[in-house]
Amino acid sequence: MMRFGAIAAAALLSLSTCSRGTNDADKQEAIGNETPGQPVETREQDAGFKPAFAGQTRAPGVKTSAAYEVRVVSEGLTKPWCIATLPDGRFLVTEKAGNLRIVSAGGQVSEKIEGLPKVVDKGQGGLLGLALDPNFSTNLLVYWAFTELRGKNNLLALGKGRLSADERRIEEARVIYRAEPAYDGNNHYGGRVMFDQSGHLFLTSGDRFEPERRANAQNPGTGVGTILRLTKDGQPAPGNPFAGQANARPEVYSIGHRNPQGIDIHPETGEVWLSEMGPRGGDELNRLEPGKNYGWPIITYGIEYNKDKIGQAITQREGLEQPVYFWDPVLSPSGMTFYRGSAISEWKNNLFICGLNSHHIARLVLENRKVVGEERIAADQQQRFRAITEGTDGALYAVTDEGRLYRIGKVTGGA
Fold it and tell me: CA geometry: angle at 57 spanning 4 and 347, to 5°?
């Protein structure tokens, strides 16, 4: 049975997509357990580690009581990676191959916006995260993360430029930061960009995947496996925790990260929250604090893809931070956003995290810095949800690897 509240049957038919040959049992597994108070996840764990505290995984399931719809707005994108809401209600979207486009709330996709530097569109690389300047309405400045070729290697870079008045070009485009060292490889870039409340930029940077590179996540002297905090010109932001320390980069904010692709600020507390991909099991939701070590690869709730143990196969060590929440089996969390609107009041301050391999959006209810409820949104759509933002109309808008833009919000009666 569909799980989108009291939506008219005709609307549900228009919103549904075929499940690509999956049977009803597969659909139910995707949607998960809907018994009130029982965890949504019904599958066996892959890694099987015990949580460090009650509620750290498999929180009780919840279900939205208000009527809402999950509607395809556009299918005209090609591997979109990030979406940002423009002041007038349209959206700026990155496509992995290196394209930047504007999409209207009605789904009309613009021509490619010219002027961006060339990206390395291989593996998990390409044109990635995106952020609008806090003063975008007046200065039209845009910041984006991308993979840049450096000789035979490549790295995560941060670009900056101005959207032209006719919206056809990015003017004065330049690279303002490079997360060194560069490597020959195409995985685990991280790549989300976000402004904090003081007007500085957070850039999430992955560990670059290969086992021999993982140790860099424990090294504040590199720009990989870390969260970076920068000024608008790509310099270390003032007040960063590693500033002045020997063998550390002053732009580093925290260490011990694997592949963080989701970041947002809690609307009321101002705390920074972060999602990151684990290996086989062990996806994490973390509350980010300056100078802290989030453990990868020393501690993890996951195992290798071939089921071998990682390191000493431990989940706790003094001085290393525990995730607020973890998933096993994985969600493969990508973009995320807190809901700040009032259109669906029960979603207020809830966290919505895009799932890739899980093919759904996880709605998390937080209380006192813990997850107390979890719901799977749009699980019947069978899409790899990559990024999500809140629109000016109080609805959520999400893009998928398959090229769709979804509107998730109050029923409007639109087609």
Answer: 35
